[in-house]
Amino acid sequence: MSLNQQIASAVSTGKCKIGAKSSIDAIKNGEAKLVVVAANCPQNERDDIERYAQLGGVKVQTFEGTSWDLGETVGKPFMISAIAVLEPGDSKILKMG
């Protein structure tokens, strides 16, 4: 059960916010259950995500690829530094790690 498959499944069958700013908003609003951050996410964005996640009790998981790889995993033709999972859908992403 790879993280890539679970991310793709969560995005296609569940409800996710794509991007660092959207992810932070989802954490602040109490909607996010998990945030996946690309390995090369800019440090200031990663720090903000981790700070808000800690305050909100949200788990942060690091995606071992680049933001290009994360974008490709969810079928988008652009870089994605973070994804907030609001509803996991058919994926088992919340049970990983």
Describe what you observe in this structure.
- It is a single chain.
- 35% of the residues are buried.
- The chain is of the alpha+beta class and 97 residues long.
- It is built from four helices and four strands; from the N terminus they run H-E-H-E-H-E-H-E.
- The mean pLDDT is 96.
- It has helices at 3-13, 20-28, 43-56, 67-73, and strands at residues 15-18, 34-38, 59-63, 82-87.
- It is globular and about 30 Å long.
- The longest helix is centred in the middle third of the chain and has 14 residues, at 43-56.
- Strands 1-4-2-3 form a four-stranded mixed sheet, with helices on both faces.
Give keywords.
97 residues; alpha+beta; four-stranded mixed sheet
User: Which class of secondary structure composition applies to the elements?
Assistant: alpha+beta
Radius of gyration: 12 Å
Average pLDDT over all residues: 96
- Quaternary state reads single chain
Number of DSSP strand runs:
4
Instruction: Give the N-terminus to C-terminus distance in angstroms.
Output: 11 Å
